[in-house]
Amino acid sequence: MSVVCLQLQSDLDQEYQDKFRRLPVEIQEFVQDSSKAKLSDDGVHGNLVSSSTTEKLNHKASQSEDDMEEGSSEQVYDTPL
């Protein structure tokens, strides 16, 4: 029974890490889509905000991946499910 639980925990950890790695890209796409919608609504140029946000997200994602690689195999996530 414990082997099954460990496998399930491992699968959930892998799924969480995969989603966490994709999050910056999804946020970037959302910001770009929102900027495009705003541009078409009021004609304001939002490219600077989008690129600045993208750089911050990419930097944060690379830091998080480094943190995950340095951690032990047992990780604790501080996010509500």
TrEMBL record:
Segments of skewed composition (Basic and acidic residues): 35-44
Protein's name in the database: 1-phosphatidylinositol 4,5-bisphosphate phosphodiesterase beta-1 isoform X1
Region (Disordered): 34-81
InterPro entries noted in UniProt: PLC-beta_C_sf (IPR042531)
Superkingdom classification of source: Eukaryota
